[in-house]
Amino acid sequence: MKDGTILTAELVDAKSVRRFSTKSCASWGSLWTSSGNCDSWFDLMMEKSGHFVPVSALDRRVPTRRELLRGLVRQAPFVAKNFRLYFRNGWRRYVLRTKVVAPYAVTFYVIHKCNLACSYCTQKEPDVFSEELGTADTIRLLRKIRKESDSIVITGGEPTLRGDIEEIVEAARFECKFRSVLLITNGTLLDRKAGILSGVTGLVVSLDALAADPTNPLSKPAALPKVMENLEFAKERLGSPRRITISTVIEEWNIGEVERLLDWCGEQGFVFAAQSAQMEKMPNLALLRNAKYHALVDKIIARRRAGTQAINGTPKTIETLLRFRDFQCYPTMFPRVYPNGDVFYPCEPLRKIAGNLLRDGSLRKIFANGKKMYGEIPPCQGICYLFGNVLSHYYVNDFWGLAGDFIQ
Predict the structure, then answer these.
(1) What is the structure's pLDDT at 382?
(2) Roughly how many angstroms between the first and final C-alpha of the chain, as a whole number?
(3) Backbone angles phi, psi at 97, to 5 degrees
(4) Cα-atom radius of gyration of the chain, to the nearest Å?
(5) 3-state SS class at 292
(6) Distance CA 357, CA 375 (A)
(7) Backbone phi, then psi, for 263, in 5-degree steps?
(8) Is 85 left (phi over 0), alpha (psi -120 to 50) or beta?
(9) Which H/E stretch holds residue 402?
(10) What is the structure's pLDDT at 72?
(11) Strand ordering across the sheet containing 180-185
């Protein structure tokens, strides 16, 4: 459950025609000291601010033609990449008649170990396990990935548990020159690996509640005080809250907490992202019988549609993702690479390894081998409701609609 926000920073930041201003707020650390616990801290924050000011309301100015042109020039590599993939994948889908499309971004699992034990995590006891490579071989693996994608998502496990994670991130950004380097983390160790923040283009922090609960020391609620402290630290180092995405997983127990997180992200200026917890790789359909869940989804979509808050995705992708609508997945658009270089075909949940990047040399060759060994990508009809999977459907089948939604 780590890739719900696989393109958060890249796609949200690409909307160069819109400016989200953020208002400053008091240091979380000082509020924590004065209030004594996280519930009091959150209540105090809401008393201080009432209802958060929609970030877009702070700047209603229509961008000038010059500003629009500057935005297009600044995002030229992003725009060029998307058009190039659009035509390449059109050729593959409609001429070659294959569902094996070109990669957009690669998810790289640098480690399986984690210092927490979230109930929904798919990496605690993976069916296919791989040992970590040393630093030099890991960087060699990054170079292989860079030949076929300029966007990488570094995840785990908990990436900050790797002793060389700062060196890996630095190599990805400055040596391999990935245009987009996102790192997904639970946020507990960011202050110990501060070098990460000078290399990433965006940070994705997993957070499922604003209520601290110390009873289970390996849970996110127990780690909340440290995570909040590190979020303030990261926001200062990165220079903008918009470079941080708060990724939350919705379960039946935390629907109210996710709503609080949504409001809090709006107040802080963080990007908000959500997906539902998977149960044995399947969606929790019981959520669809919960009126509070539907009210929460409606609220998220309404804010995204109105542009009052930075929220990952578009109204269409959020609706599909959170209400479990039909979609067709194109998993090779977001291939997953394990720590030793193993690559899945067509996707990780099916647990089929098609090759190894260090041995076989390219994702294209591995996918060709996978197609020979396992056949065409099966019509799973969207079993895994993860953001990247849903996005691949709209990217391949409704590219122009998706583009229009993202720049609105």
Answers:
(1) 58
(2) 28
(3) 60, 45
(4) 20
(5) helix
(6) 20
(7) -65, -40
(8) alpha
(9) helix 399-407
(10) 61
(11) 271-276, 244-250, 202-206, 180-185, 151-155, 106-109, 336-337, 342-344, 353-356
> Which single residue is written with the structure tokens 């009873």?
215
**What average pLDDT values come out for the chain (408 residues) when binned by 10 residues?**
50 41 33 38 41 43 63 71 85 88 95 86 69 96 97 96 98 97 97 97 95 70 89 97 96 94 97 89 89 98 95 95 93 95 90 94 96 89 80 89 74
Q: Burial, 108: exposed, middle or buried (Cβ in 10 Å; 0-12, 13-18, 19+)?
A: buried
- Spans of all domains in the chain: 8-407
The pair of three-digit structure tokens given for residue 324, joined into one six-digit string: 């479990």
pLDDT of res. 201: 97
Q: What is the per-residue pLDDT for 223?
A: 85
Q: How far apart are CA 185 and CA 114, in angstroms?
A: 10
Single out the residue of 306, 233, 309, 235 nearest to residue 267, CA to CA: 309
Q: What are the two backbone dihedrals, phi and then psi, of residue 269, each rounded to the nearest 5 degrees?
A: 90, 5
pLDDT of residue 117: 82
**Res 217: pLDDT:** 62
Report pLDDT for 220: 73
CATH 3.20.20.70 assigned to domain 8-407? The reply is yes
* Local structure of residue 254 (DSSP, 8 states): G
Buried b (16+ CB within 10 A) or exposed e, 296-313: bbeebbebbeebbbbbbb
| 392 CB neighbour count, 10 Å cutoff | 25
**Residue 20 to residue 202: CA distance in whole angstroms:** 16
DSSP state of 190: G
Give the Cα separation of 8 and 312 in Å (integer): 6
